[in-house]
Amino acid sequence: MGLAITIFVLNALYISINTFRTMLVVKGHQFLAPIVAVGEEVVYVLALAIALDHIEQSTKRGGLCDWVRCRDLYRHHH
After folding, report:
1. What whole-number distance in Å separates Cα of residue 59 and Cα of residue 26?
2. Max alpha carbon distance in the chain (Å)?
3. Exposed, middle or buried, 18 (CB in 10 Å: 0-12/13-18/19+)?
4. For residue 29, what are the contacts with CB-CB under 8 A and spacing of at least 6?
5. I want to staple 47 with a disulfide (CB 3.0 to 4.6 A). Which of 10, 21, 53, 65 is the partner?
């Protein structure tokens, strides 16, 4: 549950920064907007890295591939 909340908060932060950056671009802040964009991408990459790390750990434990074994067991018993 903590992972989902972390990713949700990071995604909300990313969207907020994106909205702020868009406002800066519209208002013509040519120096500040790219700096905010770097922060935006850092948040995005951080959230992506956390999610991909969790997927990698799940596959090492058989979490995502478990459905294949369950499917094969179901076919053999029915």
Report:
1. 44
2. 66
3. middle
4. none
5. 10
Residue 17 belongs to what domain range?
A: 2-77
Task: Give the chain's domain count.
Answer: 1
Amino acid identity for residue 57 in this structure: Q
Which helix (H) or strand (E) segment holds residue 33: the answer is helix 32-60
CB 46 within 8 A of CB 11: no
What is the Cβ-side half-sphere exposure of residue 46, based on CA atoms within 13 angstroms? 16
CB 39 within 8 A of CB 17: yes
pTM of the model: 0.69
Contact status, residue 41 vs residue 15, Cβ threshold 8 Å? no
Residue type, 55: I
Do the beta carbons of residue 47 and residue 11 sit within 8 Å?
yes
